[in-house]
């Protein structure tokens, strides 16, 4: 059976050596990007969407370059994945060396140093100085699902408590844990049982203090679930897809105290917030909480698929031998990338850089808010910042306006992402390798889109 190979798209050398500039050579998407999108339509399942319809050939620093030689300012980092940049030299070197040595053995068949080294690093870096253990997987959803498995095994209980606006993944169990129906859950049920949802602290919408919001949530858990039936309370310290919701001070602390008092495993989903993104290595640190279990992924491995569950030794060790694992979990190439990325987070000043980026984002957006009542709220920490858009006459979420702003940004050479249960949040997740000039230019374009919408 003969076949014809699809035409390839040649790429320049990636990495931060790329010109750090916004450059539009064609209208976007350009002709070569449109060619790829046409091929996608004939080859890729329709359910796999593409938010920015371009054919990427190189990326690094703070830019993404397409096949038509357009250079976009990247304010999304592949959803907080390429925090160290799309082609960090240390990651590239480590991956290249590992590929030349071996690509796979399956750690549960034959062990290797990289897996153990990543586990040691995570045990050291995650909040708390207690004894810890780690298991590695491939995606954030896998990590969350395994964290729930472990909590149920440890406690002998079944119920899992999650929150309004939460996002935890797209597997059957994590769809149940996720709050938003479209596009994540619609038509894909029935979902896993014994999942209970309670109200989140969302200061812009509920006006409650942290302790007040926690009292509301805890009361609902105790009345509708029962503390003695609850295996785990699962929460994002700052919600991601839900709209970068930063809970009011004291909310996480009160929940942590309640879980400790009732033998409930506190799982912090740090998949999006982890690894310097919020101006701390982990977002839990901002509230001073020490989760029993932490799930990580996204920014950990510089763009390669790797996730982890790290937790108290007595909890993690409760799973029987063979109960945790997976063919590709802790792949040696991904582990090599993670070790290099972790080195960059610790030694390249990226935590401080995240804070600097946050100062720019929050400062400029709050200044814009003073003159534009459509900006209902500006919030976030570090390089994880959101602008929530509303109808100023009613205060209702304005998803249509949000879509126009992001579309304008794309057409003018800036990649920006939306978020939020109501679809009315523009989220900013620039790579920590972006320079100030590009960051300001990208913001200029986004705010210009808001002004002209």
From TrEMBL:
PANTHER family: AMINOTRANSFERASE CLASS III (PTHR11986). Belongs to the class-III pyridoxal-phosphate-dependent aminotransferase family. The chain crosses the membrane at residues 41-65. Pathway: Amino-acid degradation; 4-aminobutanoate degradation. This is (S)-3-amino-2-methylpropionate transaminase. It is an enzyme of class 2 (transferase). Keywords: Aminotransferase, Membrane, Pyridoxal phosphate, Transferase, Transmembrane, Transmembrane helix. InterPro entries: 4NH2But_aminotransferase_bac, Aminotrans_3, Aminotrans_3_PPA_site, Class-III_PLP-dep_AT, PyrdxlP-dep_Trfase, PyrdxlP-dep_Trfase_major, PyrdxlP-dep_Trfase_small. The gene is gabT. Its EC number is 2.6.1.19, 2.6.1.22. It comes from Curtobacterium citreum. It catalyses: 4-aminobutanoate + 2-oxoglutarate = succinate semialdehyde + L-glutamate; (S)-3-amino-2-methylpropanoate + 2-oxoglutarate = 2-methyl-3-oxopropanoate + L-glutamate. It holds the Pfam family Aminotran_3.
């Amino acid at each position: 059976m003969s076949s014809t190979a699809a035409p390839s798209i040649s790429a320049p050398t990636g990495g931060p050596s790329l010109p750090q500039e916004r450059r539009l050579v064609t209208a976007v998407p350009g002709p070569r990007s449109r060619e790829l999108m046409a091929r996608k339509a004939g080859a890729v399942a329709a359910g796999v969407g593409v938010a920015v319809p371009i054919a990427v050939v190189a990326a690094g620093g703070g830019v993404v370059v397409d096949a038509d030689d357009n250079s976009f300012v990247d304010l999304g980092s592949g959803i907080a994945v390429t925090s160290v940049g799309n082609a960090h030299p240390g990651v590239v070197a480590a991956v290249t060396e590992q590929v030349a040595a071996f690509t796979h053995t399956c750690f549960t068949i034959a062990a290797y140093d990289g897996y153990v080294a990543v586990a040691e690093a995570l045990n050291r870096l995650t909040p708390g100085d207690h004894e810890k253990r780690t298991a590695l997987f491939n995606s954030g959803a896998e990590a969350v699902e395994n964290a729930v498995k472990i909590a149920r095994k440890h406690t002998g209980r079944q119920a899992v408590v999650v929150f309004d606006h939460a996002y935890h993944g797209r597997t059957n169990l994590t769809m149940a844990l996720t709050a938003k129906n479209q596009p994540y859950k619609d038509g894909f049920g029935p979902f896993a049982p014994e999942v209970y949802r309670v109200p989140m602290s969302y200061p812009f919408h509920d006006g409650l203090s942290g302790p007040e919001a926690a009292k509301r949530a805890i009361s609902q858990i105790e009345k509708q679930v029962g503390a003695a039936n609850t295996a785990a309370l699962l929460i994002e310290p700052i919600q991601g897809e839900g709209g970068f919701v930063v809970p009011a001070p004291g909310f996480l602390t009160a929940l942590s105290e309640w879980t400790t008092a009732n033998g409930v495993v506190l799982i912090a989903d740090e998949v999006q917030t982890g690894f310097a993104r919020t101006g701390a290595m982990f977002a839990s640190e901002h509230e001073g909480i020490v989760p029993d279990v932490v799930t990580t992924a996204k920014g950990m491995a510089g763009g390669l698929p790797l996730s982890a569950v790290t937790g108290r030794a007595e909890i993690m060790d409760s799973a029987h031998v063979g109960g945790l694992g997976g063919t590709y979990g802790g792949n040696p190439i991904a582990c090599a990338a993670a070790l290099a990325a972790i080195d960059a987070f610790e030694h390249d000043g990226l935590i401080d850089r995240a804070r600097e980026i946050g100062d720019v984002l929050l400062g400029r957006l709050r200044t814009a808010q003073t003159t534009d009542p459509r900006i209902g709220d500006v919030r976030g920490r570090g390089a994880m910042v959101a602008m929530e858009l509303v109808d100023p006459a009613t205060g209702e979420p304005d998803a249509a306006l949000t879509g126009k702003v992001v579309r304008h940004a794309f057409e003018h050479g800036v990649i920006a992402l939306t978020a939020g249960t109501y679809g009315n949040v523009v989220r900013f997740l620039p790579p920590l390798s972006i320079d100030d000039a590009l960051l300001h230019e990208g913001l200029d374009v986004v705010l210009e889109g808001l002004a002209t919408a």
